[in-house]
Every structure is written in structure tokens, then in C-alpha cells.
Design a protein that fits this description.
Layout lengths: L7 E3 L2 E3 L3 H10 L4 E2 L4 E8 L3 E10 L5 E8 L4 E5 L2 E2 L4 E9 L5 E11 L6 E11 L2 E4 L3 E7 L4 E9 L7 E6 L4 E7 L13 E8 L6 E11 L6 E11 L2 E4 L2 E7 L6 E8 L7 E6 L4 E9 L3 E8 L6 E11 L7 E9 L1
Parallel strand pairs: 4-11, 13-19, 21-27
Antiparallel strand pairs: 1-2, 3-5, 5-9, 6-8, 6-10, 7-9, 10-11, 12-14, 14-17, 15-18, 16-17, 18-19, 20-22, 22-25, 23-26, 24-25, 26-27
């Protein structure tokens, strides 16, 4: 690359500018980022408030400032930003911080990456002190580990940070299998060192909740001006009464002569014992074996490829039979590409 330097005559000598001076001169003709306020402190905010912070990005250079990325360091932060800022203009970075799951002092930062050669990465900060005017105890989180067909319930307590009366106006869940009930606590039931108005919130999981993960939100509405809504996250799992895992058998591409095998497990999650009485498969290329691990509770079913099984793609069904009429035929899909 050809580099051109300016030579200055001084007392008969030629003076070559330093590399730093050349870089400075080059920078003077490019973008230059200036952030007037890199830290936004919102003071005390009620828990659950979404903080909205706007940062100004001034371009004091002569070239277009390109904002290549803004990366929050916390998943609770959402950002939007101007991608380009022309010389002499100002762009914006807008951030939102959800305080629903925080209490006390918080600091959330974002990394701003630009094409400013002297300042390619800048950190912006949002600060606040989150005040839970209304608080869920022991925490705004309820976990269920339930069994299919059985109701389950968990209780939390809603308290104020000081002696101030308030009312719960309603409670709503965002999924149909969650319901709630509210009861004002009596004098002898109060959580010590909290406000005199307290409520028991009972969160109930319906018997018809679907098998699988539980993921919901219960919102408590109040007439407390600084905390009109308080959220309780609900998560967990509903386990099938009788569970087969894995739900299917995939051999992939295998050689029949090595007689590969795969296992599935039948797990009984109810108190009543269930016995596996047998197992069969619809394709003669496989054999099936049953091994009781804990009679009435847990069984291992092994599917093995026969050494003489014909080559090709095999898709079939494994039938697991039990002595419970509701689970008399548990079916598992089986697939193998045999060589």
C-alpha cells in the first residue's frame, strides 16, 4: 500500500509527522461517536415496571456513523436503535428493562458496536432500585411436579412493604388449567414484619392439565396505586400415569449381523402397581425382551435386530401390554435402516 506523508521544512530539515498524528488526521475525516450520557439512573421504581431508557448517539465526525450491533448483557433487556447516523446528527438507542423478577439495586448494560475507529465499543448502563411495594412470599415463583389426572395446589402470600391497606380485585391465569383463589389473612396468620393487610393466593393445577411441561403466569390485580399488578410465574411438569421413554426407537443405519439393540422404559407414576404382561413387535426382523427393574413400577423393554433380518428400511410398532385396562396396549414407533 502506498502511504503519502506530508513533509514540513523546518530549519532546513524535513520533518515526518508521527503515525499517531497521521491516525488522528485520518480519524478527523471519519465518524466520531459521542454519547452525552452513558448511564441512566432511574432511582426507585416499583417492581414490575418496564423501564424505558433512551440514549443519544451523536456523530461529531465527518463520515457516516454505522451502529453495527447493540448487545444487551441481560435477557430482560430489549433494545432498538438507529443503524446509521450522519455527520452532525444524533441517533438513538432505546432500551426496555422489565423489573418483574428483580428487587433492590439493579444495573443492566448494553454494548454498542460502531465503525468509530477510536471508540468501536461503548457501554451504556441502565440503573435503578426496584422497590416491591407488593411482594409475593416466599417468592413470585410456583413449581408443580404433578401426576396426570390429579389436582395440585401451591400457596403464596401477598404482602405490602408497609402498613397500608389494599385490596385484591381479581386474579387471572394465562392458561386454562390454572385457577386461583384469594383469602385475606387473619391477625394470627400474618407474616411477621410486613404490612397488616396480607392475602393468601392459592394457585391450583386442574386434573385435566396436559401431560408435559407446565408454563404459565398468574397475575394478581390490586388497588394499590404503585403496584396494580403482581405476577407469579408458574412452571413444572405433569407426569403421565404410565410413561414410556423414549417415545420412539430410532436405530438409524445399522448392520443386522451385529444384532444391535435399543431400550425403552415403562415407568408407573401412580401408587397402584401396573405389571407389564408382555411385549411384541409387528416386524419379524426384530425380537423383544422384557426385564422387570422394579415389579409394578418400572420395566425395561429391549428391541433387538435379528442377525438374519432382511436389508432395507423397516418401520414398525412395538406393543407393550399391561394388566391395567387403561394402558393395555402402549405403542412405540420403531424405525431402522438395515444393511
Amino acid at each position: 500500500m502506498l502511504k503519502v506523508f506530508r513533509y514540513v521544512a523546518l530549519a532546513g530539515l524535513l520533518v515526518v509527522p508521527s503515525l499517531a498524528a497521521v491516525a488522528q488526521e485520518a480519524h478527523a475525516t471519519g465518524p466520531k461517536l459521542d454519547v452525552p450520557q452513558k448511564v441512566k439512573d432511574f432511582g426507585t421504581v416499583p417492581q414490575g415496571k418496564v423501564i424505558e431508557a433512551t440514549f443519544q448517539l451523536a456523530n461529531e465526525g465527518t463520515g457516516t456513523l454505522e451502529v453495527r450491533a447493540v448487545r444487551p448483557t441481560c435477557g430482560c433487556t430489549v433494545v432498538d436503535f438507529d443503524r446509521k447516523v450522519e455527520p452532525g446528527k444524533t441517533g438513538l438507542v432505546k432500551a426496555k428493562v422489565d423489573t418483574a423478577e428483580f428487587t433492590g439495586p439493579i444495573t443492566k448494560s448494553m454494548l454498542v458496536m460502531t465503525n468509530d475507529p477510536n471508540d468501536p465499543t461503548t457501554t451504556l448502563v441502565v440503573k435503578a432500585t426496584v422497590q416491591p411495594y407488593l411482594e409475593i412470599l416466599p417468592r413470585p415463583l410456583v413449581r408443580f411436579n404433578a401426576i396426570q389426572g390429579e389436582a395440585a395446589s401451591n400457596d403464596v402470600t401477598l404482602v405490602a412493604d408497609k402498613d397500608r391497606e389494599f385490596k385484591v380485585t381479581k386474579v387471572e391465569a394465562n392458561v386454562p388449567y390454572l385457577t386461583s383463589s384469594v383469602k385475606a389473612l387473619g391477625k394470627d396468620e400474618l407474616v411477621p414484619d410486613k404490612g397488616k393487610t396480607q392475602y393468601d393466593i392459592s394457585i391450583n393445577l386442574a386434573p385435566n392439565a396436559p401431560v408435559g411441561p407446565v408454563n404459565g403466569m398468574v397475575t394478581v390485580f390490586t388497588d394499590y396505586p404503585e403496584a396494580p399488578q403482581v405476577k407469579v410465574r408458574v412452571f413444572g411438569v405433569v407426569r403421565a400415569l404410565v410413561h414410556v421413554t423414549p417415545g420412539n426407537i430410532q436405530f438409524g443405519t445399522v448392520e443386522s449381523k451385529v444384532k444391535p439393540g435399543r431400550n425403552v422404559f415403562v415407568v408407573n407414576n401412580q401408587e397402584k402397581p401396573i405389571h407389564v404382561t408382555g411385549a411384541k413387535i409387528d416386524d419379524d426382523a426384530f425380537t423383544v425382551g422384557v426385564l422387570p427393574i422394579e415389579a409394578g413400577k418400572r420395566y425395561q423393554i429391549t428391541v433387538t435386530v435379528k442377525a438374519e433380518a432382511p436389508a432395507g428400511l423397516h418401520k414398525t410398532v412395538l406393543h407393550i401390554n399391561t394388566d391395567d385396562p387403561k394402558f393395555s396396549d402402549l405403542q412405540v414407533q420403531v424405525a431402522a435402516n438395515l444393511k
